[in-house]
Amino acid sequence: MPERDRHCTVMMDEMDIMGLVTYDQQMDQMLGPFKHLQVFLVCGIFSSWKLPVMFAFNQPVTKELFLDLIGGVEKAGGRVVAAVNDMGSGNLGLWRALGVGHDTRPYILNPADPTR
């Protein structure tokens, strides 16, 4: 993949899923009930690729999880230059933990490359 096509953004969304319970045939067990789903998707900026990289049930996004996810995308060859979300309450907590806010700074430094 050309270097330019590696530039990407991390998109995250939290969703309410109404206490979902499901059966996992491979594990032969019931999973749930789950009330929240967190999804992470990485999308190309200069090219039209997208890749789901993580989903988690009933798990808030912590600063460590988010920075590790960016580091993993970078290690796999992606060049993360942006992150976006719908500003749900859990996501607002993440941005506060990262020191991002309208009265502070509107960005974070990339943990894999502080020049970005």
From TrEMBL:
Pfam family, one: TNP-like_RNaseH_N
Species of the source: Amphibalanus amphitrite (Striped barnacle)
Chain ranges of the Transposable element P transposase-like RNase H domain: 3-99
Protein's name according to its UniProt entry: Transposable element P transposase
